[in-house]
Each structure stands twice: as C-alpha cells, then as structure tokens.
Design a protein that fits this description.
The complex is a heterotetramer. Chain A is of the alpha/beta class. Chain A is 50% helix and 11% strand. Chain A starts with a strand and ends with a helix. Chain C folds into five domains: 130 residues, Rossmann fold (3-Layer(aba) Sandwich), CATH 3.40.50; 180 residues, FAD/NAD(P)-binding domain, CATH 3.50.50.60; 78 residues, no CATH class; 166 residues, FAD/NAD(P)-binding domain; 59 residues, Alpha-Beta Plaits. Chain C contains 17 helices and 34 strands. In chain C, α3 crosses α4, α7 crosses α8 and α11 runs parallel beside α12. Chain C is globular. By secondary structure, chain D is α+β, with helices and mostly antiparallel strands. In chain D, a hairpin with a 2-residue loop joins β6 and β7. Classes of the chains: A alpha/beta, B mainly alpha, C alpha/beta, D alpha+beta. Chains A and C meet through loops of A and loops of C.
C-alpha cells in the first residue's frame, strides 16, 4: 500500500465532497492510501493569489509541502490548480537554489525550511504512470460501454509544457486512455484543449467573460454528442457544473450536460453507487447519465 | 482638446513619449523570463481564448511591457488572462507570456492596482486558510458521505492559520490588503 | 638549460579590446619583473606589420631566444607571431601566446581589476612555459594528387567539377542511387524561375562524363584514416543487385516488378517498384533493386525483361573499395525539420497540411501529379493556400526540436510557390503568414515586389493553430494580423508549412570519421565563420554547401567552388608541412603494455618489436597531439612535443606563485 | 515524417484490410474473416515476413472476432503471393479498387491446380454432395424444382390418331380423352347437312403429355396411340463446384452415391499424424477449427472403454494445418505436405515457397511474456 498525504485544496472538500470521497475510495482498489493531510490550507490559488505576489504564492505553497516533508510522505492531489501551485513550487524550489534561499528566508518566520525531499503528484499521473491503464481496466465491474465522454484536461495539468512531465499539450492522449479503459468512448470535440474560463482570477473578476468561454466549450461538447464532461480539476468542475446554471440565468443557454470528476466516473465503473460518490450534490443532474449506463 | 479638430497647443511639442526601461527588467525578475526576446509574431494573441471576447491582447501587453509603457499596469484587461498558458506553449521565443502577465499583475498589485476580488480571496485565506471556505450546506453533504463536517485542513486545525498570516505579513501583502480595504471604504 | 633564457614579452592593445579594460602598459611593466624576461613592450596592434617588425627587431636588438605575445586567441594569430619569431632568427616553436582578450577582457569587461590580475597570471604562466620550450622542426609530407567529395547534391557536384577541371582526380561518393540531391526535387528556382532540373541535369551529365571524376553512387564512406595529403578512405559500394556495367537503363525490370513501395524521392507521394530509379533523369541511369521489399519472383530476370543483359544478380555483395586522396570535401547536405512535432499545425493529422518540399513535388512537372497542384484530401485544385513561414525556424522551442536560426530559403521558396499557384490555378490566392520576409539576395527583394504585385497576400503574424472541418477537410487558420492588431480566423483549402532546414542525420557518421565538430546549431563547424567558412579544424578536410549551414543555391555553388579551390591548394603545391606537435615514445622506458594503443582516438599508436622487446611507437602523421596516450602511459614513457610535462608543470607552478 | 505513405489497417464488417496509400495509388490487401480458417499458410510463405499468426483460440473459426492472421501494413510488398496460396481464397489484393494480379498475369508465380469437376452425365442431381460439403457456397446446384412430375425426366411424346374414314377404329371425336387430359383438346365442328363426316379435330400438346396412356385405355374406338421416347431419365439442370469456394476436401466425392461422378483432387498430398499420447483430453480446439470436419472425437462404444482421444479421417483432411496452429500442446499433431499440385511455371520463388510449405508442421508452444 503506497501512502500519500492527500492534499484536498478548497473546492473539492468545501463544495464537491463527492470528489474527495470518490478519490479515496477508488484509489484503495489500486493499493493507494490517500491519508488525511493535517493542517493543509489553500494551495493557494495560482491565478488569483499568484497574480498578487509570486513569492508569497510559492511560500504559502511551500508551507504545505513542508508540512508533508516533516511526515516524509509524497503529496497526491486531484486539482489542476493545486497541482500548479504545489508541483511548480516544489519543482522551482528544487531547481533554483537562489529562489530556495529567498523562500526559506520567508519561511524562517514560521520556523520552517523547505528541504526538497518529497514529490508532488496529481492522482491522474499516479493512475496512468504507476497503476497503468491495464490495472484500471481490470478494476472495472460496470463497463461504461456506449457512453460518450467529453474530456476536459484543464490547463494547469499540461501547461506550461516545459514544466510538466506529460508531453504533448496540444494532442495529449493519457486521460483519453484512462477514460477508454472504463469502456467509455472519448469523443473529439472542437477546441478540446481550450480553457474552461475560470482560472487566473477571471471567474471572480469578470464572471460573464469566464462563463462565455465555458459556454463555448459546453456548446462544442454537446455538438459532439457528449453524454458527460469528465475533468480532473474541481475548479474546472465547478465552472462546468455550476457554470451551466449561471449560463442559463445570464444567457438563456441550456445544456444539462452532467459533469464528473474522473474519480467519480471511475467509481461508477468500479461498481460503487452514485450516493457514495456524491453525485447527487451536483448542480446538473446526473440521472440521465446513470440511466444510460446502469 | 480645446475645440473640435484642434489640439491643445501644449501637445504640439514633440518628444513626449516616455518609456521606462526598467519595467521589462522587473517583469523578467518576477518570473517573466525571456520577455525581452519577444519578436511580436502574434502567436500568443491568436491562440488566446480571451482575444475574441475581450480587449486582452497578449502581444500588445508584451509590446508595452518591453517598451516600458507603464500604462499597461492600469489596463483592466490585464486581469482577464485565465492563465491557460496556451500562448506560452506555442511561443517560438520560449517566452512564458502568462508568467510575464502575472509579473505585471504583481507590479500592479504593489501599486494598489489590483481588483478587489483578488484582495477578497486573500482575505479569505488569511481568515480561514481557504480561498473557498466550507459552508453550512456543504457540511451536511460531507456528513452524508461519511466525511467529517470539516476537512482535516486549517478548518479542523486553525492553529496553522497564524503561519499563513505571518507569510502574508512578511511578504507585504497583508499591508496592501489593509490599505486597499481602507481606500475602498 | 644550457643557454640563458631571454624572453621578450609583447602586450597588444588590440585597439580598445584589451587596452579599454586593462592597463597594458602596467602589464608590460609587470612582465619585465618576471624571471627570464629580457624585454617587454606594449603596442596598439602587434599583429600589424609594424607590430611584427617590432618583434623581429627586438629579438635581434635584445638577443632574445624566446617570445610571448599577450593578445588574442591563438586560433587566428599564432601562425602570424610564429612567423615573426622565425624571421627574427629564433625557432618558431619557442613562441608562446597569452590569450588576454577572448578569455579575459571580453568576458571580464565589467571587472577590470580582476581582469588585470588574470592577465598578469596568464602572462606569468606563458613566460614560464616559454622558458621551457624546445626548438622543433616541422616535417613536410607529399600530397596525393586526388580528392574525395562526400555527397553529390549541387554542392558536391559543383566541387567535383571544379576539382576535376583543375586536373585533380576526384572520387565523388553519394549514398543515394542517383546524384542530384535535394535540388533535383525542386521544380523551379527563385528568383529567376529557372527550371531546377534544366540547370542541374547538364551538370549531372558532366559529372558522369568527366574523365577525372570517378562517380560512386549508392556508396558510403565507411572509414577514413591518415592525414592531410594521405587519407586512406574505405568506401562501401552498396549492392544495387544490378551490375552497373551491364544495365542499360531500359527499365523493363521496373515494368514487370509486382512490388509497390512509396518512392522516397517523391516523399512517398507516388509509388515505385522494388526495381527502380529514383527519377527519370537519374545519373547514373542504373537500376537498383530494393532488397528489403523484393520478393525474388525473378520476373525481372526473364527473357522478356532483363534477359540477355543478365544485369541482375540477387546475390551481388556490397564491395569495399579503398582510395587514397590528398584532401576531402564534405558536402552532405541537410534534412527537413520534422514539423509533425508542431502539433498545433496538425501536419499528418489533417490531410491538406503539407510541407514546402511536398508542395515542390506537387508543383513539379515531373512530380506525381505532373505539376497539377491538388489537395491530398480530394484531389481538387486549391483556391486558397496558406503558407506558414518559419515553420520550425527562428523558434527556440526545444521541446519541439525547433531551430533558433533562420533557414534562409523558406521565405523565397514560399514566394516562388505563391507565384506558381497564381500562375497555375486561376483565381487561387496565396496567403503568406510571415514575421519578416527575408529577401536578402540579388534580385530577391524585386521578386518579393513581383509576388505582391501578382496578388499574393502577406499577413504579418505567426499561425497559432490550424483546425480542420471534418467534412470538407478545409482548414481554419488562426493568426493575429499584428499590423492590424486583429484576430484572423481564415478558412483555407490548403496550408503549406515552410519547414526549417536541419542538419542531416547522415552527417553524424562523417563528422566522427573525420573528427569534425559542429556549431551549436548542429551544422558542421567551419575553421572561421567569416574568413574561412569552407575549411575545418581538421587539416585537409573542407566543407561545401548546407552541411555547414542553411544557404540557397547560389551560395551553395559559391561555397562549393571555394571549398574546391581550398582543397586543390595542397594538391597543387604537392606537399604539406605538418606541425611537429605529436607524441614521441621513449622506447627505453616503454614497457610494451599497449595501454596507449587502446587510448589513441586516431589509431596513431602501434606496438612493434624492437631488439626482441615489444615497444610502442607513434605515427607522427596520424597523431593529432591530443596527449591522451601520454596521460595514460603508466611508465611515463610518452612525451608530448611542445606540451611536455615540464612545460605544463612550469605553467602551473607559475600560476601558483601568484596566489 | 512525410505525409505519405500512409499505412493503415481497418476492419470493414468481416474483412480486415491493410492499406498502403500514396497520393496517387491505394493498395489494399483484404482478409475475409468468413473464409479464413487460420491455417497459417500465408504466414509461412510471405516473402516479406509481413504476416504473423494471430491469437488463435479454441473457437470455431466463424465466430472469431479478430483476424486469425495479422498483417503488417508497413512490411507488406503488396505482391500477391499470399493471395495465390490461400487455399480458402480468403485474401484479395486491389490497386485503386481493381484487382491487382500483375504477378500472376506475368507468370511470375503458378496457381494451385484446382480439380473439382462433376460429371454431369453420371450425376443424378441428388443433394448429397451439397449436404455433405463443409462449406456453404462451394456446391452450386442449379436444378430446377420439380413441380410437375413429368418435369423429372426428359422425353418426347407423339400421338397417333386414327382418322382413316375406312378404319374400324376411326376417331369419333367423342371428346372423352380431352375431358381427362390437359394434353388433348377435342374441338367439335358444327355439323352441316353437306358434310357430316368431319365432326371435329383432336389437338395434342406434346409438352403436357407424360405418356401415361390413360387416353388409349379410355378411347371407345381405340383410335389413339401414344408413343413416348425418354431421352434423359434424370432431373434437369446441373450441379457444379465453385473452385473459389471449394476446399478440395473430397467430402462430396466420397459421399456421392454414383461412382466416378465427382472428380476432385486435393491440393496437397501428404500425411497427418496424431500423437494421442500428447493430446489433452477434452480440449477439442482442433476439432472445432478443422474446416473440413476431418478431425473428430471418437465415441465410446462400451461403458468403461477408454476411447481414443482424437482421430482423423485422412480422406477428408486437406493438410491445411489449422489444427496445428490452434493446438495448445506441443508435438500432438504432425502435418506434412509432400506434394503440392500446381499449374503454371514453377518459378524459383515458388520452389522456395513450396519448400517452406512442405516442412513438417507441429505445434510449438511459445511461453507468453518471454
């Protein structure tokens, strides 16, 4: 059983607890133990907080990393935003001694020092590279045959590419493979790699513009006959799910396209019931989707 | 303008355009590496999902930053970048334009030119440790799923919040927040 | 030392290059304080005629028996100062050079005090070494009156013809079945719109007919040993499975062959048989059987086909041929950038995105469509064609393997394609997405005007992304018109990616065989970028054409002619002088352990029996003076002339004295 | 890195197709999974070694969802040798949609000598061969269905009517015969006082008469005589063998009720040898896959008797080798071809190929993952 400190971030535990629960439950099937990460905070939000002060952003990220360093555990997380904050903070601090010195001088105020002794990994990375699509496939009890999935990778998982390990940011395949391993079909849709519109503080700054981007994505997904959107980022998840309600209110466009985090989709395929995955807490009803596959 | 078609005579004088050569150096120092290498090809603007729906023009931002036109810091569109990094991944000059924009936002923040929505997020982190804190309704959802009402984060262990505030204090952000909150009152 | 050492030190100002940073007068004064220094002086340009005269005169006047010049890198001016020393009556190898420019004032411009300290260190070290130097005599060897040219594109062809016309026996080696290289793939050439084949074919035929040229096609250089004047080159003549002397090029074997494979020459746009010539104008017009795809059905051997000629033999082996040449010209050309790696442009994902070279074959009258430009998805004539310039050039994206340099030909060939499309397809509009149009050559800018006047549309902006309509296969190109500051999303029938020129993969082997280097861009490194762009750091080896860097046809031809001229000089002179900087073995101390045999990268060391004892010796001509054998010799029996242990230790000691 | 050639592979219904595409030419090699038995001959003989045996299992070949043979679209030279040597005509090679046969047209390779003839003179048009044939479409039985019994034989019928006025048997045109038989029609003419002799006419339709002679019997004046000559005492139509479908297993010939009527020659001669000591009981993969139904599990004749595990009827085995490929145990079945019947020039390529085909075949089991 490989143990990780499970970094929750904000949106998953505080808005979509089903994502948190499904991650823990589905991972157990692969001998991955996502443990309580005591005292973790906001990553903090890379676009919004990083825009105010990059050093403070890295220092607050490093605070979270240092908490896990003390326990000697690698961090696993399920949010692209948290991934950007913590993976990049970890990576930059390890690679750049000057920056490390600068950040450690900030951390000295709270009697903490960044060592660079652990790794920060996105659960999707662990699933693809450590577990592998074959084992994911083996864990399936309820194949999702006939389900058209519109995959939303999210930006901070893949970009900037020089600072990531996933390769192609234009035509990536790994997430598609993980979805196809569950028996579903990944549909290609226009502007698949486009941003959901929420990041960079734009959702809180100019929500109409953020929703306009989201609207375009949802439209393209529906045009491609998608039954569901699957993501690996609770913030994208919120934008795509909650956003549909707001789009309906503001622009009158209705999609009713269910939105699932990959771990929730995986949970369904592994035979878990929708309640224990928290699917009933979504803004957009997942009932039509469940009717189709169950 | 004094009257239609006429300019104020004081504008007739030449040599009024002023550039601040230090601006781009500060951008590079704050993480916008290679920013001076921009050769204005427009790949960034063309790939940017905001271009077609807003006034944000990444190439123009880079141009102004490079020439040292500090007016770029006052541009409200500077805050429309969703940090999707598409411009950066396609840049043939290996400029991380997104990081350059973030660096410009950092500089703008120092000058109190940051939207209050950002300051609010900082306030929430300072208070609870979370940018998006827990809510009553969510607590119920958590319990139904067999999770504790509060996650094992600063919500359960508020003693860590003081560390967060210390970092905000030593990086000067807390002061900016307080000043801006006072200004907006 | 028997004789008292009297060293003269000459400190060069190099204008302000050195004197602008450090106090050269003080440095000369400091030199005077050093042991064995009998004279020291500074001068504005020591390399100038008066500067050299100054060295000569000082030697005589002050009875000097050693010289040190503190100036630039020895790469350019060491021969100059050696000559001046020799003219002063002192053995040229009693001269030593202190580099206080490249390694000092240029890099430490911001910290003059430290630069001064470093200059003193270097001068002190070189004086110490000069005190230990021994007089040496250069050796002269005869030069074989023959040359080798590797690669038979336009560069190799031109170089061979020049050499042959100068009366030099020339071996021209080409790895492909025909000569002609990339130029033979082109339709027309900018800006004159000469038909490429029309101007190239006569040269190809000349090569075949010239009695001084021995053409070896479908052949590769396997091994090179020796040195300037005396290279022994082993060439593998790959089996064509066809006897060249018997094949008359009738093509009947090709007619009957049942195998179908994509023709590499046509970039796979059309098929060829297993028995083939790459293109109809091939030289030599001899067929080749691609044994990888041949099924040995024997149809080509029947009476109706090759029959009485009996030119085909499936068991014909490769042959190894050894030739002896005096000089070598490398003309191995280039490859095209794998633009598939720029995933945002969708090459190989979308049917109607092609490369510049593919467009060249589509436009070419001898191409797969007979010059009818069609789009691959549906065979229709495109009415709007986008050109993405700098596709992989002027691009620092290492993840995509893109190249930071300008490829120098893409602007012009895209302009030419634009012209040809306007000419061939009525109503067709070419859109050129550019950042800068680099039309720098003679009549190039005028050609640019011409295409503008013909209706080519120029959009200053780089294409961010291309998408495809899955039904019509039309392409949507997204770019910013940076002059308007406006986003463009254009639906086009076809897009041509003017992809970058990159160093040829096949050059790597030649590079290793000839101990050449490459510049950071990956192309072969010339001896001097401005003053000697056709020579290399390996004596007797020269560069011609694109293997040294991107250039267009006129520049390639000039470069090749220059390389031929340079390569013919040692041959016509008949002998060359070898640097006496080689290793020598003290055979009394040699234990015959053979350590040096394994260490030598040049195969210069050998083991022989002398007086009943195995001892090592060094082939002076093969030895490049790298010192590897000496540092590995367990008994210290190997001595590097001009870089003896004593000489190097004296430098180190002198350095240590300053600290 | 170039746009072309595009090598690809696709499934179209029950066909697995590989493709080499350039701008101006498309070459396809299609494997019909309905016909392929997984015999592996194509893999043995491919000059480019571009074909490998796929994951065969103990499944009947018609149910296979993946092709038994896996073709490498990049290695294939699209020469057509495999097309010629597939005993089951499961492969087709096309260039831009048209059959590509240049290798054969130029006699660069021989054909199998395909002998499968039915002697129509002796064939009685029965259905036995069609029923026994293991393939659906190999026997083409074009025999019209007998709806009227007289269609069963081929004959000519003549009628003689005594109308001699002086005869005592002269027809009276009473019309009885016409009443009882469709072949006869009696027309009465109206009697006039001038001529009372010619009372009518008897018309005879020979195609309807089957020679039963009831008319003779019933005629009150015995004026009708029927003469029937049988020219062909069998069903009409013909039964032929479609050589593109036939496996030359000889089931039809062996089961034909008329001797020497079906002349069928196996493509291969040689032997099949089963080493039952190695055969695991209860597997029957080979029985399932055998396209010719030559292999069988023998029945237990008496309680307690230990039955042989596997037997083969040499008469029907075509030596295709499918059983060898499917067998999960080493050295259980040995198939050896000694003679290959061909027509056309025996080219060098053929001789080399034939050499490979005539090697002894026996299951060799490679461990997975090594």
């Amino acid at each position: 059983m490989k143990e990780y400190n499970f970094f929750l971030g904000c949106i998953a535990p505080n808005r979509y607890p089903g994502i948190e629960a499904s991650a823990v439950k589905t991972s157990r099937k692969f001998d991955i133990d996502l443990q309580d990460f005591k005292g973790a905070s906001c990553c903090p939000a890379p676009g919004a907080f990083g825009s105010m002060d990059v050093d403070a952003w890295i220092a607050l990220g490093a605070r979270n990393i240092c908490l896990s360093e003390k326990e000697g555990k690698d961090i696993a997380l399920i949010c692209n935003g948290c991934y950007k904050s913590l993976f990049e903070a970890n990576h930059r601090l390890k690679a750049n001694p000057e920056l490390k010195e600068k950040i450690n001088s900030i951390l000295a105020n709270i009697d903490t020092e960044f060592q660079g002794s652990i790794e920060v990994r996105h659960l999707i990375d662990i699933l693809y590279n450590d577990v592998g699509t074959e084992k994911v496939k083996e864990s399936v009890e309820q194949p999702l045959t006939g389900l058209n999935v519109a995959i939303h990778y999210g930006c901070h998982l893949l970009k900037p590419k020089f600072d990531r390990t996933f390769g192609s940011s234009e035509r990536p395949r790994f997430f598609d493979e993980l979805v196809e391993a569950l028996g579903a079909t990944s549909v290609d849709y226009k502007e698949k790699m486009m941003c959901c519109g929420a990041g960079g503080g734009v959702r809180s700054y100019k929500v109409d513009l953020a929703l306009d981007m989201c609207n375009e994505k949802l439209y393209n997904m529906v045009q491609a006959n998608a039954d569901v959107v699957v993501n690996v980022c609770p913030f994208c998840h919120l934008q795509l799910d909650r956003g549909q309600v707001e789009i309906k209110e503001k622009f009158g466009d209705v999609y009713d396209l269910p939105v699932l985090h990959y771990n929730q989709l995986l949970g369904i395929a592994q035979g878990m019931n929708p309640e224990e995955l928290g699917l009933d807490a979504h803004e957009i009803s997942v009932e039509p989707l469940l009717a189709k596959i169950l | 303008m004094t009257s239609e078609g006429m300019r104020d005579p004081k504008h007739y004088q030449l040599g009024k355009t002023q550039f601040d050569p230090d601006l781009i150096k500060e951008v590079e120092a704050r993480g916008g590496k290679n920013a001076q290498m921009c050769y204005q090809c427009g790949t960034c603007t063309a790939g940017c999902p905001m271009t077609q729906r807003s006034g944000l023009r990444v190439r123009t931002v880079m141009r102004k930053a490079n020439l040292g036109m500090r007016e770029v810091l006052d541009d409200p569109d500077l805050w429309l970048c969703t940090t999707c990094y598409t411009c950066s991944d396609r840049c043939p000059r290996r400029i991380i334009a997104t990081d350059a924009i973030i660096a410009l936002r950092n500089i703008a923040t120092q000058e109190h030119k940051v939207p209050m929505s950002m300051i609010k997020i900082m306030g929430s982190i300072a208070k609870t440790g979370h940018g998006v804190p827990n809510s009553e309704g969510n607590m119920k959802k958590r319990v139904l799923l067999g999770l504790p009402e509060n996650p094992p984060t600063t919500h359960t262990y508020p003693e860590y919040i003081k560390d967060i505030n210390k970092i905000l204090e030593v990086t000067g952000l807390l002061k900016i927040k307080e000043e801006m909150e006072a200004e907006s009152q | 030392m028997d004789e008292e050492k009297r060293i003269g030190v000459f400190v060069c100002h190099c204008g302000t290059n050195i004197a602008g940073v450090i106090d050269v007068k003080a440095l000369a004064e400091y030199a005077k304080t050093l042991p064995n220094v009998a004279y020291a002086e500074d001068y504005t340009y020591v390399c100038s005629t008066p500067g050299q005269t100054m060295i000569r005169d000082a030697i005589k006047e002050h009875n000097l028996n050693g010289t040190v010049v503190a100036a630039c890198s020895p790469r350019l001016h060491e021969p100059t100062f050696r000559k001046a020393t020799e003219e002063g009556g002192v053995n040229q190898f009693l001269f030593s050079m202190a580099n206080i420019r490249e390694q000092n004032t240029w890099v430490h411009m911001e910290e003059p005090e430290k630069a001064m300290q470093k200059a003193k260190d270097v001068v002190r070290m070189e004086v110490a070494r000069a005190s230990m130097l021994e007089p040496l005599t250069a050796k002269t060897v005869p030069v074989e009156k023959a040359a080798l040219v590797i690669g038979a594109g336009i560069a190799g062809i031109q170089a061979s013809l020049e050499l042959a016309d100068a009366g030099i026996k020339t071996y021209l080696v080409e790895k492909e079945p025909s000569i002609g290289g990339m130029m033979s793939r082109l339709d027309k050439t900018f800006p004159t719109l000469d038909c490429s084949q029309c101007i190239l074919t006569p040269k190809m035929v000349d090569v075949e007919r010239n009695p001084n040229i021995e053409l070896m096609t479908y052949s590769e250089v396997e091994d090179v040993s020796g040195y300037i004047g005396n290279f022994d080159v082993t060439i593998r003549q790959k089996s064509r499975y066809v006897y060249e002397d018997k094949c008359n090029g009738c093509g009947k074997c090709q007619e009957v062959c049942p195998v179908s494979r994509p023709n590499e020459f046509d970039l796979g746009l059309q098929p060829r048989k297993a028995a083939y010539v790459p293109f109809p104008q091939a030289v030599p017009l001899k067929f080749t059987i691609d044994m990888d795809s041949c099924i040995k059905c024997d149809l080509c051997k029947t009476q109706e086909a090759c029959g009485d000629l009996e030119a085909i033999d499936f068991d014909k082996p490769d042959e190894l041929v050894t030739v002896k040449v005096g000089t070598i010209i490398v003309a191995t050309g280039f490859d095209m950038y794998d633009v598939e790696r720029k995933e945002e442009w969708g090459y190989k994902v979308f049917d109607n995105v092609v490369t510049g070279l593919e467009m060249e074959r589509l436009i070419s009258a001898s191409g797969p469509t007979g010059g009818n430009v069609i789009r691959p998805s549906d065979g229709q004539k495109p009415k709007s064609v986008g050109f993405v310039l700098c596709a992989g050039s002027r691009d620092q994206d290492e993840e995509d393997g893109a190249k930071p340099y300008c490829s120098r030909v893409c602007c012009m060939y895209s302009l030419k394609h634009a012209h040809q499309l306007i000419e061939k397809i009525p109503g067709c509009v070419p859109y050129l997405f550019y950042m800068d149009i680099r039309s720098f050559g003679k009549a190039y800018e005028e050609f640019y005007y011409r295409i503008q006047n013909e209706g080519g549309k120029f959009i200053r902006g780089r294409v961010s992304r291309i998408t495809e309509d899955p039904i019509t296969k039309n392409l949507t190109v997204t770019a910013e018109d940076t002059l308007l500051g406006q986003l463009l999303e254009m639906e086009l029938d076809m897009v041509v990616l003017a992809n970058a020129v990159v160093p040829a993969e096949s050059t790597q082997k030649i590079k290793t065989l000839l101990t050449l280097s490459n510049s950071p861009d990956g192309f072969l490194l010339e001896a001097h970028p401005k003053l000697n762009p056709m020579s290399t750091t390996t004596d007797g080896v020269f560069l011609a054409g694109m293997c040294q860097g991107p250039r267009d046809i006129p520049d390639v031809v000039s470069h090749a002619a220059a390389a031929a001229a340079a390569a013919s000089i040692p041959i016509h002179r008949g002998s060359v002088t070898l640097e006496p900087i080689f290793a020598i073995v003290d055979q009394e101390h040699c234990g015959g352990c053979a350590t040096c045999i394994g260490l030598c990268p040049y195969g210069a060391t050998e083991l022989n029996e002398v007086d009943g004892k195995l001892v090592a010796s060094v082939n002076e001509a093969k030895c490049k003076g790298c010192g590897t054998c000496g540092s590995g010799c367990p008994s210290g029996a190997i001595k590097m002339q001009h870089f003896t242990n004593e000489q190097i230790m004296s430098e180190i000691e002198a350095f240590a004295q300053g600290w | 890195m170039a746009l072309f050639p595009i090598y690809s592979k696709r499934e179209e219904g029950r066909k697995s197709i590989i493709e080499q595409k350039t701008l101006v030419q498309t070459l396809n090699l299609a494997l019909d999974m309905e016909r392929c038995t997984g015999c592996g001959i194509c893999a043995e003989i491919c000059p480019e070694e571009a074909i490998v045996k796929g994951p065969l299992g103990a499944v009947g070949f018609k149910e296979m969802e993946v092709p038994e043979m896996v073709f490498d679209q990049n290695k294939c030279s699209y020469c057509g040798v495999c097309v010629e040597l597939c005993p089951f005509t499961a492969l087709k090679l096309t260039e831009n949609g048209e059959p590509k046969t240049d290798l054969i047209d130029q006699e660069g390779f021989p054909h199998y000598l395909k002998v499968a003839e039915i002697n129509l003179d002796t064939c009685v048009r029965c259905k036995v061969c069609e029923e026994m044939c293991p393939r659906d479409k190999a026997i083409e039985r074009n025999v019209p269905e007998v709806t009227e019994r007289q269609q069963a034989v081929t004959y000519t019928a003549e009628m003689q009517l005594d109308e001699d006025p002086g005869s005592e048997n002269k027809c009276t045109y009473c019309g009885l015969c016409g009443e009882i038989c469709d072949a006869l029609t009696v027309e009465h003419k109206e009697a006039t006082p001038i001529n009372i002799e010619a009372l009518g006419e008897v018309k005879f339709d020979s195609t309807k008469c089957d020679g039963c002679k009831i008319c003779e019997e019933i005629c009150p004046t015995d004026s009708i005589k029927i003469d029937r000559t049988i020219s062909e005492a069998k069903l009409q139509g013909e039964v032929t063998i479609n050589k593109d479908e036939c496996m030359f297993c000889t089931w039809c010939a062996k089961t034909c009720p008329i001797e020497n009527t079906i002349d069928i020659k196996k493509i291969f001669e040689g032997s099949i040898n089963i080493k039952t000591e190695n055969c695991p009981a209860g597997c029957s993969a080979c029985v399932e896959i055998c396209p010719c139904n030559a292999l069988y599990l023998p029945p237990q004749h008496e309680p307690g008797e230990i039955a042989a595990k596997l037997e083969v009827n040499d008469d029907f085995c075509t030596l295709c080798g499918a059983c060898v490929n499917v067998c999960p145990v080493a050295n259980t079945i040995e198939v050896k071809r000694d003679v290959i019947h061909i027509e056309g020039t025996e080219t060098e390529l053929y001789k080399k190929t034939a050499g490979k085909m005539m090697e002894l075949k026996t299951p060799t089991i490679e461990k997975l993952g090594t």
